[in-house]
Design goal:
single chain; alpha/beta; 7-stranded mixed β-sheet; two-stranded antiparallel ribbon; 7 helices; 19% strand; binds 5-O-phosphono-beta-D-ribofuranosylamine
Length: 230
């Protein structure tokens, strides 16, 4: 059975595109709905161009009911947040617990929480003097950037980095990690246990599987596949 994924995105939607491209190759899951709180988001325009169902989530009303109806109308199994800036209502989190994930452009639990998005995240990393950053993919709970961490990938921070160069390096790793993890969650190979632990992530315990996000994309993708078992 092909798992049906909804992607929520507020911005340009590059992670959405990376996920879509990966699923087209990997199979077993597909993006069936793109929703955004911003009518002008690049993610919605991209979905419309491809004939993927798309919808704007208006603010102010009963967000939880709107979202749950939208997800049920498209028979969604799994929801992936890719640059979605609004807090997902608790009712939706409860309904999709263990099937709702998010990608964040830094190593949580540092550099996350309300207001920590976009360039602000990378600025905070640079200001902290941290020498390593990288994407985090985590299950979503009721608190911003707080749910159980599924996977992270190390990306070096160089002395001469700016928020632009660091963001680009982290984004490259996001585009490789997020689709792989979303695919594993959608296919039930990574799950959230009743007591809030992640089961199934990092199939390999070989530290050599973890490469810094510097090599070629295919080399990096191979090391992710080896670490995640995907
Ligand atoms: C990404 O950096 C993601 O980690 C964060 O928001 C950004 C979205 O970028 N949550 P895009 O819209 O996928 O290009």
């Amino acid at each position: 059975m092909t798992a049906r994924i909804a992607v929520f995105a507020s911005g340009r939607g590059s992670n959405l595109q990376a996920l879509h491209a990966y699923l087209e190759r990997a199979g077993g899951a597909e993006v069936v709905l793109v929703a955004s709180d911003r009518a002008s988001s690049g993610a919605l325009a991209w979905a419309r161009d491809r004939g993927i169902a798309s919808s704007t989530i208006e603010s102010g009303g009963d967000d939880a009911t709107t979202i749950l109806e939208l997800l049920s109308a498209s028979r969604v199994d799994c929801v992936a947040l890719a640059g979605y800036l609004r807090l997902v209502p608790a009712e939706v989190v409860r309904a999709y617990r263990g099937r709702l994930l998010n990608v964040h452009p830094a190593l949580l639990p540092a550099f996350g929480g309300p207001g920590m998005y976009g360039a602000r995240v990378h600025r905070a990393v640079l200001a902290s003097g941290a020498r390593v950053s990288g994407p985090t993919v985590h299950f979503v709970d009721e608190i911003y950037d707080h749910g159980a961490i599924i996977a992270q990938w190390p990306v070096p921070v160089f002395r001469d980095d700016t928020e632009v160069t660091l963001a680009a390096r982290v984004l490259r790793a996001e585009h490789l990690l997020f689709p792989r993890v979303a695919h594993l969650v959608a296919s039930g190979r990574i799950t959230l246990t009743g007591d809030g632990r992640v089961s199934g992530a990092y199939a390999s315990r070989d530290p050599a599987a973890f490469l810094f996000a510097i090599p070629e994309d295919d080399v990096l993708a191979e090391s992710m596949a080896s670490a995640l078992g995907g």
